[in-house]
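Retry 2 of 3 after timeout on previous attempt. Resubmitting structure tokens to design endpoint.
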């Protein structure tokens, strides 16, 4: 039988089949992901084949279907190993806010670079719209235009008051969407506003602990009433890590990627080279200073994630 992993606790996986049934499954055999060593062989979003165990209501996963993408984070202790957070994502949504705690542009840009590197379409949701004065709304419009001009769709919502939640619903329909955002932006509030059954999240957690299974910070997938899934990543503020070569970095800034073939030198770093099309666009105001500063910051390896 084929199914979708919607939850994992490390040794058990909840597998959802097309008929809406969930089966708790274990793994049989070895699942390796080419080119990387992982602490977990399977993750939410994985499509697998499983067989029922004789005389049991549990199953055994016997095959993993190829992943179209996955996001991974480095293990804290084992530097060479990674933990796959989620697989087969259609899009990644970053929940941000200009109200407290304000999301920095640097944080947004790092997220977008990572999403580009993973080839996962990224979108921004500006939350806490209800807190803005007219002046604040102008600033919000400026921020949005920075990102919309580069091609990242932006939404403004209030999870608290339900404003524009339908736009987000529309965006999620039929898709597998990863939700990210730093603590306090209202990610949980937004997810709760999207899921009609408010008890769902807490209910599921207690379900698992009743069985005495240990729950760490594995991602969870929630089915939306309109079709599609939300993946929540508790404790993971970012999209995971990816090693980006310095020479590659500008490829992950769409506005730089669009112009770099016009640079005089094919190996232009866009820092101080003569005939640099990126620097020219920056001078003309076609490239935002904040975006370019993020480029430099990442290029030089400065960690300004807050
Ligand atoms: N005014 C206003 N407050 C909001 C809104 N959304 C969330 N909040 C508040 O912001 C705070 C943080 O919201 P959470 O949903 O817990 O934020 P989170 O991003 O999930 O944060 P963590 O749980 O720490 O990961 C809470 O006090 C919410 O009530 C909003 O649209 N407007
Ligand atoms: Zn250049």
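Retry 2 succeeded. Sequence:
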């Amino acid at each position: 039988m084929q199914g979708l992993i919607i939850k994992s606790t490390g040794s058990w996986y909840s597998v959802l089949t097309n008929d809406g049934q969930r089966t708790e499954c274990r793994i049989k055999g070895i699942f390796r992901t080419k080119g990387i060593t992982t602490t977990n062989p399977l993750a939410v979003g994985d499509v697998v084949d499983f067989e029922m165990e004789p005389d049991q209501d549990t199953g055994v996963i016997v095959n993993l279907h190829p992943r179209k993408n996955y996001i991974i984070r480095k293990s804290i202790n084992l530097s060479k190993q990674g933990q796959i957070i989620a697989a087969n994502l259609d899009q990644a949504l970053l929940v941000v806010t200009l109200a407290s705690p304000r999301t920095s542009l640097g944080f947004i840009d790092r997220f977008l670079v990572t999403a580009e590197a993973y080839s996962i379409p990224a979108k921004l949701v500006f939350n806490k719209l209800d807190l803005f004065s007219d002046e604040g709304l102008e600033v919000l419009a400026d921020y949005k235009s920075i990102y919309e001009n580069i091609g990242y769709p932006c939404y403004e919502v209030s999870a608290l008051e339900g404003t524009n939640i339908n736009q987000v619903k529309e965006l999620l329909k039929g898709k597998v969407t990863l939700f990210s955002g730093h603590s306090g932006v209202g990610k949980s509030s937004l997810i709760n506003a999207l899921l009609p059954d408010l008890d769902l999240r807490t209910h599921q957690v207690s379900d698992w602990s009743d069985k005495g299974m240990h729950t760490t910070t594995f991602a969870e997938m929630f089915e939306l009433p309109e079709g599609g899934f939300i993946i929540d990543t508790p404790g993971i503020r970012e999209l995971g890590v990816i090693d980006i070569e310095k020479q590659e970095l500008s490829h992950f800034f769409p506005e730089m990627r669009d112009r770099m073939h016009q640079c005089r030198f094919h190996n232009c770093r866009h820092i101080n080279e003569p005939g640099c099309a990126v620097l020219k666009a920056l001078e003309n105001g076609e490239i935002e200073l904040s975006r370019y500063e993020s480029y430099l910051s990442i290029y030089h390896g400065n960690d300004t994630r807050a």
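Attempt log closed. The CA atoms of residues 80 and 283 lie 41 Å apart.
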